[in-house]
Specification:
By secondary structure, the chain is α+β, with helices and mostly antiparallel strands. The chain is built from two helices and four strands; from the N terminus they run H-E-E-H-E-E. It has a domain of about 60 residues.
Length: about 90
């Protein structure tokens, strides 16, 4: 997904690793790490693209898994039927 985000912005990239994802929970985090390689001349641009991509994914993920209480403006998990802060029902 990250390599695709880079390539969509015109930065050639390759990746290695990440093949141990099936062992999630059983292996240390560094065993599941992925290395992404770009040309040295694209390094700073690539970092910026990935930071922007990460911010976008966080916003999309948060909006899909949370709702904001219209009464107190508190964020709640999508599974909550009542606001955890003010106990008002989810709209």
């Amino acid at each position: 997904m990250l390599v695709q985000a880079l390539e969509e912005q015109g930065v050639a990239a390759t990746s290695t690793g990440g093949f141990a994802a099936v062992g999630f929970g059983e292996l240390p985090a560094d065993a599941r790490m992925v290395d992404i390689f770009v040309a040295k001349s694209d390094l700073e641009r690539g970092r910026q693209i990935l930071l922007e991509h990460q911010a976008k994914v966080r916003v999309e993920s948060k909006s899909e898994h949370e709702w904001v209480c219209p009464f107190c403006q508190e964020q709640n998990a999508i599974t909550f039927e009542l606001c955890w802060s003010c106990q008002q029902p989810r709209p």
